[in-house]
Design brief:
The chain is an alpha+beta fold. The protein has eleven helices and ten strands. The strands form two sheets. A seven-stranded antiparallel β-sheet has the order 3-4-5-9-8-7-6, with helices on both faces. Helix 2 crosses helix 3 and helix 8 packs antiparallel against helix 9.
Length: 400
Amino acid sequence: MPTHDPDFGRYGPPQTQGPDPDPGEPKDQAGGKPGELNHALWLWYLYFQPKRFFEHFATEPSFVLTALCAWVFGMSGVIDRIEMQHTQGRLSMSEFGLSQGWEGYAALILAGGAFGGLMHYALGGWWYGKRLEWCGVERPEKRLVRRVYLYAAQIIAVPTVLITFTDAMVYNSPVEAMEAERGVWYMLFALFPLWSVWASYRGVRTVYDPPRVWRTRIWFILLPGVVYSMAIVVFAVAAFNTQLLEPPRLSRTHVFQNATFSFEYPGNWWLEDDPEADPEFYASVEAMQDAVALFYTYESSFLAGENLSQTLADLEQWTGTRRQESPCNKWGPLRGEGVTALFDIEGKPYRLLVLVASVGQGRYVEVREVCLVAHDGVAQPGFDLIRSTFRVAGARIGGP
């Protein structure tokens, strides 16, 4: 519960320059009588009833709640910076023990959050007060300003800290959590900064009701909204470019196996499904670097060279010009008829390797590697891993 601030009498009553709420207006009844609020549900009010939250919680001094909010806000900043640096490849996986357990990471977040919270309280609160002054609020009381600022920031901070706490129960290390594949729902976190902008504006209007309305909208809605939107775009572009140039992850690999063949592939590559292909005789592994490795097993009455010629003719019809072709008779453990060539696909040069290997009477395995030439050097370790681990199963090879 908010506790009485011993310095409250020194500064006078809360600064509410707008009209007092109607005492006869019915209040939210979440867990209490009409006119009362359930203080345990303060986050609910902040997210979904910000006006009511700031009417009651911001104007009631609470050292405990203010300190807690500053700390949580500081911790979320530490988490964001570490994840950004890791995503951009500027943070070693072994630094702070991120590739091991959660103990070192937790200590870093807790300690860094305390320091960051103090900085937010001092510098962030000062900047918030300056904006209020530019909107016409005369001499805003510093403690009240910092409460409004820190409380609104919880809309960003709390989800970040909660997700990290949840990850600690699901993943073995912070690095494993950062590199985990997230669903589309994770993109909803981009909405929280904009949500916090609106809550902050509602808090300012509720507690202060600044006389310069348009300046208030500019300083507390327009400019913060633009800054957050630009930050989201920059982060998304940086993350995409980093993934594009990220080398194949060989420290953590996946295994594919069906009835006819098996292999390992990098942890940051993925399987692509083809609803028209039988997964027992087909596999496709893709990477961000415009690279793909495809595998087929089939039966044919033709020789390996004839199957290769038919494949190349089909590919040339689909892709366009084929040039700089050279023979290739070995791929990993397979030996057969193959070529390495350059194809122009949509005006971009791609390297193509195709090899057809006989693995039994009238049965073949066909391998295709396709990669944008500009990214070929980055993708090669991933192809090397697949080649070195590729095995043909002895149980059943072939297809209808």
